[in-house]
Specification:
Blueprint lengths: L3 E4 L1 H9 L2 H16 L5 E2 L8 E5 L2 E8 L4 E9 H4 L3
Length: 85
C-alpha cells in the first residue's frame, strides 16, 4: 500500500519557490518514499521520530503515520536550515 503525502504550509511554500529542476527531484524522491517511507535516515535528539531525505544539498524532513498511511512533510530546504525548529 502506498502512503499519501501531505505537505505542511511551510513545506508547500518552499517547494513552490524552488527551481523546476529542484522541484522535480524532490517530487521524485517523495514518490519513492511513498512506497518505502522508513528507508530514509531516522533523526535523533529533538527531532526524534522524524525522517530525512537527502536530495543533493536539500533535505526533506517528514514524519510517518502508520495507522493513517500518511507521510507529513514538515520542511524542505537547505541542509543547514531545515533542521531548525
Amino acid at each position: 500500500m502506498m502512503y499519501k503525502v501531505l505537505l505542511s504550509k511551510d513545506a508547500a511554500k518552499a517547494l513552490e519557490r524552488m527551481t523546476p529542476g529542484a522541484r522535480a527531484r524532490i517530487i521524485t524522491a517523495l514518490e519513492r518514499a511513498r512506497a518505502e517511507p522508513f528507508r530514509a535516515k531516522r533523526l535523533r535528539g529533538e527531532l526524534e521520530g522524524l525522517f530525512s531525505l537527502r536530495i543533493g544539498q536539500l533535505r526533506v524532513v517528514y514524519e510517518v503515520d502508520r495507522e493513517e498511511k500518511v507521510i507529513v512533510v514538515h520542511g524542505i530546504g537547505p541542509r543547514g536550515d531545515v533542521y531548525k525548529k
